[in-house]
Design goal:
Blueprint lengths: L11 H16 L6 H19 L8 H41 L4 H18 L6 H22 L5 H25 L22 E2 L1 H7 L5 E7 L10 E7 L1 E2 L4 E2 L2 H12 L13 E7 L9 E2 L2 E3 L2 H6 E3 L5 E3 L7 E7 L10 H8 L10 H13 L3 H14 L3 E2 L10 H9 L1 E2 L1 H14 L4 E8 L2 E4 L2 E5 L3 E8 L5 E4 L1 H5 L1 H5 L2 H4 L10 H5 L3 H22 L3 H12 L4 H23 L10 H17 L8 H7 L6 H19 L5 H18 L2
Parallel strand pairs: 12-13
Antiparallel strand pairs: 1-5, 2-6, 2-16, 3-7, 3-14, 4-5, 6-11, 8-11, 9-10, 14-17, 15-16, 17-18
Length: 671
Amino acid sequence: MQPIDKPIRNQTASLLMAGVFCVLSISLFEPLLFWVLLIAICATVMRIVMYVGWYQPVPSSRTVNLLGLLCCICLVWFSFSIGLLLTMVNLLILAGALKLMLLNAPRDLFHLFCTTLFVIGMGFTFHQSFVMTLFYGVLTIALLVALARYFTPSQSVLWHVRRVVTMGLQALPIAILLFLIIPKLPPLWKMPVAKSTETGLSDTVSPGDIASLTKSSDLVFRATFEGPVPEPHERYWRAITLEYFDGKQWSVSPLRKQARQQYRLLNYEFAPKLSGSWWQYEVIAQPTNKHWLYGIDIAVPADHASDQMIWRGADYQILSESPLSTRRAYRLRSYPNADMSQTLESLDHRLNLQQPEIDALNPRTQAWAKSIAEQNNTPEARIQAVLNFFVSQGFTYTLTPPAMPDQPVDDFLFTHQQGFCSHYASAMAYALRLMDIPARMVAGYHGGEILQPGVLSVYQYDAHAWVEAWIGQRGWVRLDPTAIIAPDRIQFGIQQAVEEDAFLANNQLARLKQLPFLAELQTFYSLLDYQWSRWVLGFDAQRQQNLLALLLGNVTGEKIMYLVLAIMGLISLLLALYFIPHWRKQRIAPVKFWYRKAVSAVSGCTGIERVNQGPQAFAVQVQAHLSEVDSASFISLSKQFIQLEYQRDTASHESKDFVRNCRAFIKQIRR
């Protein structure tokens, strides 16, 4: 079907497509530069103005090309700060906006359609939740409606919506079948990393950084346990091992990074000996654009797919082979009672006895640690002395500690004596190093909320820091001074450990979610999003193998061939049901349908079949075989049918009257 000869700017299709492009651009406001988003909105407004007729001339190609050149120069300038991924995203939106300005020919409309469709697919790079998937589905339907409207503008928009939705529902079972059977191949290329979209923890931590994360209620990851869930005091989720201290901040040791690179070149991965009880679970991590993953010590991959994507470091940290630019699912097995002394002791001691280069930092802490070391000979006694100091001096746990910029450890220990978990962990790790005990700080998360039996949800406000110290033959031992100062933080979570007004104090939206109704709604959405993440986004090669094993038992090449043939046969059957005319009868207009029923009634009464005769000739032929009343009624119906079928501009009420007369005639002749 050919579109009507009408300028593109005056067609509803161009307006619909412009609206879809604008809404899609606004939904990507986070990765877009502000001026790029502004150009997209201005292009949409320009298209609306042209459609209404307030402004008719289309901008010249020279003007738009000049604007495009200037925008590209600006984009190149910003690319150094936003990274390759966001640069390409902004470039695509910019190209679509400029094409929207030039929309004047069918070719331009098709180009914009393809660009918008590609942007919808690109949106899944940043948003993969169930709600956003529905949102992108609605935008896809609207985009297809706009294209269909261009080719058949005589039909109403509602008619196009029904048709597109019907075809989409018909395609859905085929898409599901293909999703289940198409092999899950690894990606052919790596996603470029965006520089400005890193979230959550950082590899450089100062004592106040983790406290700032408690203002966020963003989800970090969910863990699904195959057996019992660990007790609250056992839920220490390691993310980063911090071994370098400059007197103010903790960071990943440069020497550790160098050793890790050398191990990678030699393809040597840390493989500790494991023993004791274990937990097995699946983690679905949110995107952070960082390499670190989350697990309870000692964590090792639980299947081949997870082993391929995880690198195990000698600092008991687990890392992803590529940054987490999208949601990532992996399976772990944790051995909490395994020996923690299996690393290279000489390297660990060298890294974790390191002192700040500036001796003038925190002098009171140095003197205090020296006095403890002189009074206590064993590492255990020195550690206990530090913990006793925290208890005896009345330290308090707070989310809003005062700033300590100059001498952070001295100010915390001897002046303010109040702080968050990272203040306690930083001070204790530094003090133990001064006492000749190798120590480091571990940043991660602690706790988690029960979403449903066996499932934990961990949020940014669960961020936590603790200490690891090397104690003789035991190796690395976890020490958490927060458990001494605020035991409720470890047992019940941060919300119970601090004042209610301080929890999420600056996040009013998160505080509203604590209302009963909104809390139930949030729980329902979390469950829905969890199931979506686990069974759809997390449907990887391993899950596909499990599904095949469930359906086929022992998976063999022959069984897979039969399964593929069966599914292809099912798809062929669905296509046959959709498109073979014999099974999908064409709809007949009500006037023609009821005339044919009247003819059938007459043929049944007279025994005369209407073969190729016209309505009027057939009425004359059967006139002698009908009663006078029936004959007059049928002749009148035939005249009405000829008028309605072949005369233009007939009113709808005339068709309704004809249908009503046909029904009355059929009842009359069958008496």
